[in-house]
């Protein structure tokens, strides 16, 4: 065996093993498999456990094709299917629970079957393998003759009204019918109610035989694949076995039924958009939180969020100075300093020179400032509001800068990063929120974890909203103007992981913090609340869901950030100034303008 062939088979083993880890009740059926670039191998390596082989018998050979005109010398049942399957078994690439090898007979039934059986006898490892079912479809003998064929030969029933004796029924592998006989649905949008009734009725009828069911002639799309699995179709017909298998095997992990909710607060709008001078600014950043993430949280949270009650909305362009797609460091720096910089840079310009950030600028004007995050305090977004480093991974140097920062308050994770930093010489440190007394006049630091904080689903609870509420009470007591940045960091983390449950639960949790900020602005007419994101993560989309049970199916185009614009919401004094479409660094300049601290 050549070196290249060995590598090829190792590659196939890897894929087969990886796909076999996610067993499910559906079976992906590779329709017209001979038209694939690599017949058999493409379907088999993708994890498709049913493979359709069109067979035409001519000149004592079993050709793989649909019609006699399509015959190509050498493309036979043996060369394209039986030999590869034999090799797969020899290499023990047989992790399937059940493999259906369906021969769709296009020539005369009796003579073709006779030749096929003769050929199959040359492959005892295949016909004696209990995990492999040889199924005859297309042109078949009369049902009464089924019992005359070898034990390893089964048949495809194509009449849901067909009656069988128990002995003949044992020879039936599954039932297949033409989808177009029941619906003209093209796989886009939804089935009509009448079509859905007809489709469900034929599935129920077929299932009375207690055999698996398959439609042929089906639309071939993600929407169709999901709909058919939802309706109990056992074999999912497709010309795209790899894409279909990949979609279906990840469907469970991409679907989330929410048990985390935000109690929606509906503001009075009495101070919203007023021309009252702004004294306090609360900037909430949902890391990676694009419009689809927000939409998913809305749909999972009874159709509303506190965020979606707001009326002043704009859009922000997020590109960094040196890249089409920003990272959190460059985006955080743009928001914190008003200057676009290179990816990975924290609080420095494109030449590595430190730029004064908003907490430093406002401290000089008599403001108190704070940062809250569900990330470590050395994370890219919070550090952009107090540190100046050419690379976001210079965690030790960033940690040292927190001690020199102008922050009056911080709440975040990652206390282990600060073991060598004597923060207690500047901050009244706490190991949890419970011991943080908002009545203090001292500078305060709260570490909510030694490393990265827990997610909401892993037990963080309502900590972000509580931290927001306590921090606002802390600033209120100081009777000084303040700037507070609040980051919901793990929307981004779960976007990178393509984890729908994490994205939605963290976005809903973010809304609980937003609620506390909006309530504060309601009671304090000189406060402006801004809610935005540094960028979108994962190319998140929402193909399906159920409003009644709070279920969302998420899908992802990448594991990384994207270049799409992100929304910005504003509530309170001078909120109108934040509508429109603009660059992310303009947020800083607009804040400085409304605070009138130039």
From TrEMBL:
<keyword id="KW-0479">Metal-binding</keyword>
<dbReference type="Pfam" id="PF13653">
    <property type="entry name" value="GDPD_2"/>
</dbReference>
<keyword id="KW-0378">Hydrolase</keyword>
<dbReference type="InterPro" id="IPR018299">
    <property type="entry name" value="Alkaline_phosphatase_AS"/>
</dbReference>
<dbReference type="InterPro" id="IPR017946">
    <property type="entry name" value="PLC-like_Pdiesterase_TIM-brl"/>
</dbReference>
<dbReference type="InterPro" id="IPR001952">
    <property type="entry name" value="Alkaline_phosphatase"/>
</dbReference>
<protein>
    <submittedName>
        <fullName>Alkaline phosphatase</fullName>
    </submittedName>
</protein>
<keyword id="KW-0460">Magnesium</keyword>
<comment type="similarity">
    <text>Belongs to the alkaline phosphatase family.</text>
</comment>
<keyword id="KW-0597">Phosphoprotein</keyword>
<dbReference type="InterPro" id="IPR017850">
    <property type="entry name" value="Alkaline_phosphatase_core_sf"/>
</dbReference>
<dbReference type="Pfam" id="PF00245">
    <property type="entry name" value="Alk_phosphatase"/>
</dbReference>
<keyword id="KW-0862">Zinc</keyword>
């Amino acid at each position: 065996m050549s070196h290249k062939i060995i590598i090829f088979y190792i590659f196939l083993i890897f894929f087969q093993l990886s796909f076999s880890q996610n067993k499910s009740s559906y079976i992906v059926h590779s329709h017209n498999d001979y038209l694939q670039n690599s017949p058999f191998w493409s379907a088999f390596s993708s994890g498709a456990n049913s493979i359709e082989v069109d067979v035409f018998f001519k000149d004592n050979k079993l050709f793989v094709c649909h019609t006699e005109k399509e015959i190509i010398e050498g493309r036979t049942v043996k060369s394209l299917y039986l030999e590869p399957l034999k090799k797969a078994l020899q290499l023990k690439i047989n992790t399937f629970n059940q493999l259906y090898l369906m021969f769709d007979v296009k020539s005369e039934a009796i003579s073709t079957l006779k030749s096929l059986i003769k050929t199959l006898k040359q492959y005892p490892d295949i016909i004696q393998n209990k995990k492999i079912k040889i199924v005859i479809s297309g042109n078949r003998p009369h049902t009464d003759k089924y019992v005359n064929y070898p034990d390893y030969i089964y048949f495809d029933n194509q009449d849901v009204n067909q009656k069988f004796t128990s002995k003949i029924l044992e020879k039936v592998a599954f039932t297949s019918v033409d989808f177009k006989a029941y619906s003209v649905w093209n796989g886009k949008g939804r089935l009509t109610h009448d079509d859905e009734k007809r489709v469900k009725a034929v599935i129920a009828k077929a299932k009375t035989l207690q055999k698996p069911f398959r439609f042929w002639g089906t639309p071939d799309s993600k929407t169709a694949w999901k709909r058919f699995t939802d309706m109990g179709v056992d074999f999912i017909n497709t010309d795209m076995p790899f894409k279909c298998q990949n979609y279906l095997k990840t469907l469970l992990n991409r679907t989330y039924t929410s048990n985390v909710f935000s109690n929606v607060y509906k503001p009075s709008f009495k101070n919203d958009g007023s021309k009252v001078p702004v004294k306090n600014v609360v900037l909430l950043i949902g890391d990676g939180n694009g419009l689809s993430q927000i939409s998913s949280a809305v749909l999972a949270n009874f159709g509303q969020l506190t965020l979606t009650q707001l009326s002043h909305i704009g859009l922000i362009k997020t590109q960094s100075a040196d890249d089409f797609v920003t990272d959190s460091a460059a985006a955080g720096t743009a928001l914190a300093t008003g200057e676009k910089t290179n990816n990975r840079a924290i609080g420095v310009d494109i030449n590595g020179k430190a730029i004064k950030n908003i907490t430093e600028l406002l401290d000089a004007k008599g403001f108190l400032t704070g940062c809250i995050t569900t990330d470590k305090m050395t994370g890219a977004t919070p550090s952009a509001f107090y540190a100046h480093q050419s690379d976001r991974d210079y965690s030790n140097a960033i940690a040292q800068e927190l001690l020199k920062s102008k922050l009056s308050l911080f709440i975040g994770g990652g206390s282990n990063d600060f073991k060598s930093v004597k923060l207690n010489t500047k901050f009244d440190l706490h190991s949890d929120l419970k011991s943080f007394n908002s009545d203090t006049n001292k500078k305060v630091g709260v570490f909510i974890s030694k490393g990265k904080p827990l997610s909401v689903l892993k037990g963080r609870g309502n900590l972000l909203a509580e931290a927001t509420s306590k921090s606002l009470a802390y600033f209120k007591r100081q009777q000084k103007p303040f700037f507070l940045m609040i980051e919901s960091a793990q929307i981004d983390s779960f976007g990178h992981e393509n984890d729908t449950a994490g994205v939605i639960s963290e976005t809903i949790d973010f809304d609980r913090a937003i609620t506390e900020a909006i309530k504060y602005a309601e009671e304090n007419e000189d406060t402006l609340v801004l809610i935005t994101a540094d960028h979108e993560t994962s190319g998140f989309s929402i193909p399906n869901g159920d409003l009644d049970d709070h279920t969302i199916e998420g899908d992802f185009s990448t594991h990384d950030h994207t270049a799409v614009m992100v929304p910005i919401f504003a509530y309170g004094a001078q909120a109108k100034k934040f509508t429109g479409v603009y660059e992310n660094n303009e947020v800083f300049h607009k804040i400085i303008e409304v605070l009138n601290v130039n």
